[in-house]
């Protein structure tokens, strides 16, 4: 599946499944968000080529979904504007559940990329990976992400107080979920 999306800026970008050439771009985005230090409960960037490649190999082996937003006029690694991964849980009895993670490059936020890559990832995770429900977790102060998840129809199902401690601050964790059939009914 592949779609062209025209941004408010006039730029045309492509949304599609990840391929091996995207690995550096995806990890570049991840490491930049880690350095921002306020969105993910991760303290150190990932530098190891082995770790980056293993992550990609595992996606392919497990047939997990990773949708990327690609700028055709930019060079690697900056051409990957964002990524949305829906991974499987470790439990044998929860293969119908996918766990969502998303990152969009700072310069390209608030342009609708997040909305569109999540939308494609949800649809593809049902079609290609038999997922029925998507779950996610988010810091309670991440207003933009929470707004977007609610807009897509995710329901808040819990809060873990002071679940994370970073840079001398505690953060509550918000837990959300979405049934894919409900999503598809509301967004045919
Ligand atoms: C969260 C994130 C993935 C969203 O991607 P995005 O491409 O910016 O999302 P979109 O542009 O589709 O939607 C963002 C929406 O939030 C709104 N928004 C922005 N700041 C907001 C705020 N402080 N409060 C409420 N809504 C806000 C925007 O107006 C937009 O809504 P609209 O399209 O209806 O106007 C992206 O901003 C990001 O990567 N953030 C850093 C990493 C992160 O937080 N990852 C998720 C961890 S749970």
Q: Which spans have pLDDT < 50 for at least 5 consecutive residues?
A: none
Report the portion of residues in β strands. 25-35%
CATH structural fold name:
Aminopeptidase
Going by CATH, what is the homologous superfamily? Gcn5-related N-acetyltransferase (GNAT)
List each distinct ligand once. Answer: coenzyme A
User: Helix and strand succession?
Assistant: EEHHEEEHEHEEH
Termini distance? 16 Å
How many strands appear in the DSSP assignment?
A: 8
Describe the structure.
With 188 residues, the protein is an alpha+beta fold. The chain is 33% helix and 34% strand. The chain is built from 5 helices and 8 strands. It has helices at residues 23-36, 49-62, 113-129, 143-152, 180-186; strands at 2-6, 12-17, 65-70, 80-88, 97-104, 133-139, 155-166, 169-179. The chain has an 8-stranded mixed sheet with strand order 1-2-3-4-5-6-8-7. A hairpin with an 8-residue loop joins strand 4 (80-88) and strand 5. The mean pLDDT is 97. Bound molecules: coenzyme A. Coenzyme A binds at residues 33, 39, 102-104, 109-115, 138, 142-145, 147-148, 151.
């Amino acid at each position: 599946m592949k779609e062209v999306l025209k941004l408010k800026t006039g730029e045309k970008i492509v949304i599609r499944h990840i391929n091996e050439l995207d690995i550096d771009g995806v990890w570049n985005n991840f490491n930049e968000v880690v350095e921002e230090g306020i969105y993910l409960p991760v303290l150190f960037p990932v530098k190891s080529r082995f770790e980056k490649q293993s992550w990609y190999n595992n996606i392919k082996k497990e047939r997990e979904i990773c949708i990327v937003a690609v700028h055709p006029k930019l060079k690697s690694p900056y051409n990957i504007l964002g990524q949305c991964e829906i991974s499987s849980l470790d439990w044998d009895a929860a293969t119908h559940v996918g766990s969502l993670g998303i990152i969009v490059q700072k310069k390209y936020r608030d342009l609708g990329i997040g909305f569109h890559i999540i939308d494609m990832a949800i649809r593809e995770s049902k079609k290609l990976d038999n997922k029925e429900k998507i779950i996610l977790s988010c810091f309670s102060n991440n207003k933009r992400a929470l707004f977007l998840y609610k807009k897509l129809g995710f329901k808040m199902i819990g809060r873990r107080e002071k679940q994370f401690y970073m840079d001398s601050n505690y953060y509550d964790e918000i837990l959300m979920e979405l049934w894919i059939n409900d999503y598809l009914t509301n967004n045919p």
